[in-house]
Write a structure and sequence with these properties.
The protein has 221 residues and is of the alpha/beta class. Helices cover 51% and strands 19% of the residues. It has a 5-stranded mixed beta sheet, sandwiched between helices.
Length: 221
């Protein structure tokens, strides 16, 4: 069994969120820097682990790989995954340490699970369902989906509007075509899932210019 801890480190406190392997949030807290905060973190982990404490692996994602807090995590036997904030800003716009961990946990870690970007989008519930009636076609949202995943992806898409010029331009084009806010945001989330699939398949970091180049060329044409 594993527990995943997202640790958003600030100068005098840590905002932590603990999730299980399905991405379900088990606990959330703001902890003070220092011994008191670390003691509280150990207590939270202990409460969640119960009698199985010796069989649980705890993985902590945090923005630094040094300092007394990190040394205390390692001394406690936790696996520390240092995430450079600038690197996180490149995996994709809108995905921070906690939200990124949730998205990846919901998708799962089997590299062969999604053969195509379309398969990943269908699982995410971001790809629309097309219904045809005569000469008319209507794109509808999928009602059966992973609620935790779609919620995380829409949160990412909304945050990406501020962080990514490409995402903002893509969203604005959907609105210009008559889409409402929710529909345009869902289409942006769908596009971001496709980009994530490409990055995971090729093992490359997110690049703003590459991610949106096709859409920029289509717009110019």
């Amino acid at each position: 069994m594993r527990l995943f801890v997202g640790d958003d480190w600030a100068e005098d406190h840590h905002d932590v969120e603990v999730m299980d392997t399905s991405g379900r949030r088990l606990a959330k807290a703001r902890l003070p820097e220092g011994v008191a905060g670390m003691t509280r973190l150990h207590a939270i982990i202990g409460e969640l682990a119960g009698e199985d404490a010796d069989e649980i692996e705890v993985l902590v994602g945090i923005e630094t790989d040094r300092g007394p807090w990190v040394r205390a995590l390692v001394a406690a036997g936790y696996t520390v995954l240092a995430v450079n904030p600038l690197q996180a800003a490149r995996s994709q716009p809108g995905l921070g340490t906690v939200l990124g961990a949730r998205v990846l946990a919901e998708f799962g870690d089997d590299p062969t699970r999604y053969a195509t970007a379309k398969a990943r989008k269908n699982y995410a519930g971001t790809s629309p369902i097309t219904r045809a009636s005569g000469k008319k076609k209507v794109a509808l949202a999928r009602f059966i989906h992973n609620d935790r995943l779609i919620d995380a992806l829409l949160t990412q898409a909304f945050s990406a509007l501020r962080l990514s010029p490409g995402a903002r331009a893509y969203y604005d084009r959907q609105r210009a075509r008559g889409c409402g806010h929710n529909a345009a945001l869902r289409q942006l989330a769908n596009r971001l899932v496709g980009i994530l699939h490409g990055c995971l398949k090729t093992g490359t970091l997110y690049d703003e210019a590459t991610a949106w180049s096709h859409h920029a060329e289509s717009l110019a044409a």
